[in-house]
Amino acid sequence: MESINKSDSDKLIFFQSIVDNVPDMIFVKDAKDLRFVLFNKAGEDLLGYPKEEMIGKNDYDFFPKDQAKFFIDKDRSTLDNKKLLEIAEEPINTSKKGVRILHTKKIPILDATGKSIYLLGISEDITDEKIAEKKIEEKNNQLKDNEERLNLVLESARMGAWDLDLINDTAKRNLMHDQIFGYKEPAEKWSTKIFFSHILPEDQPTAKEAFEKAYKTGTLSLECRIIWPDKSIHWIEPRGHVYYEKGKPARMLGTVVDITEKKEIHRKMAEYTENLEMKIKERTKDLADRIEDLEKYNKLMIDRELKMVELKEEIEKFKKKLAGK
User: Fold this and answer.
1) In this structure, are strands 99-110 and 224-227 parallel, antiparallel, or unpaired?
2) CB 3.0-4.6 Å disulfide test: which of 15, 60, 167, 183 passes with 178?
């Protein structure tokens, strides 16, 4: 900046050629009136004004009053405090690109006596970055909303959800998942090892076979019994889908529900059906016995009737015989 202080036109041209190749907007203002004395090509492209139009003018000549006042207030603060001022975000109206967002650094240029004589500004256009951040934020908010809705559905259905990292054997779960395994509060950690430690010994082979099959087919389907921390036994139904990396199982996402009540209903239905079938068999046998007795009685009555007919015929024959004498 010594070249600017000396108003050396050759050195100013040299300095101008350097700053014109910097991708961020660079400008220099005089400390007295805060009028532009230097402007680079990136600044021209950003604001849409040629530097010849900018030089000798101040912010009020190009920007809305409130915006220009903000810029100049920050300039004065930088010059008065004689130290760098960084503005993380500031909007600026441009002639062709609409409103842009800048990340600006303002630096006081001092003379040999320590007096502020110029203000150097370096502004990076972060509009695209902020738009991307906003989109990411909106996406994250949308994902959060979807997750909250999903959790509401899962809680309403009393369904646990889990995301198992098969490589590191760690898992993310919702609270309902851990509650299904008998924990009132979220368990400190979860893994396939912890999962299998809850399964009844007699159901372990079935569960291991289901997981081995899932690694090959991509789908987990299982019903097994687990032991809660309070030693009570419950039925669960885990279902999941396997995701692969380089052909190897890397992740499994799924749900789990407590089917203890369902199993109890099925048990009672099976018991009721068995009792009903037994009663039907008993009634059928009783009915068969009664039919057999009726058939015997009917045969007896028929035999009796036949004997009565024969007796009547004998009597008639005897009467005729007596009459013939």
Assistant:
1) unpaired
2) 183
Contacts of 165 (CB under 8 A, 6+ apart): 171, 250, 251
Burial class (CB in 10 A: 0-12, 13-18, 19+), 55: middle
Tokens of 219: 């789908």
Tell me the CA distances in angstroms from 82 to 4, 67, 148, 237, one per residue in order: 18, 23, 50, 70
For 206, the enclosing helix (H) or strand (E) is: helix 204-217
Residue range 2-125, CATH number: 3.30.450.20
pLDDT tens figures, 254-287: 999 999 988 888 888 888 888 888 888 888 888 8
Q: How far apart are the first and last CA of the chain?
A: 173
Q: How far apart are CA 13 and CA 251, in angstroms?
A: 61
What residue spans define the domains of the chain? 2-125, 158-258
Q: pLDDT-derived band of residue 25, with 50, 70 and 90 as boundaries?
A: very high
The answer to whether 2-125 and 158-258 have equal CATH topology is yes
Nearest to 134 by CA among 89, 98, 180: 89
Q: Pick left, alpha or beta for residue 235 (phi over 0 → left; psi -120 to 50 → alpha; otherwise beta).
A: beta
Tokens coding 111: 């003379």
pLDDT digits (tens, 9 = 90+) for 212-246: 999 999 999 999 999 999 999 999 999 999 999 98
Geometric angle at alpha carbon 52, from 50 and 56, rounded to 5°: 120
Give CATH for domain 158-258: 3.30.450.20
The answer to whether the beta carbons of residues 24 and 16 sit under 8 Å apart is no
User: Which residues are bridge partners to 129 per DSSP?
Assistant: none
pLDDT at 324: 67
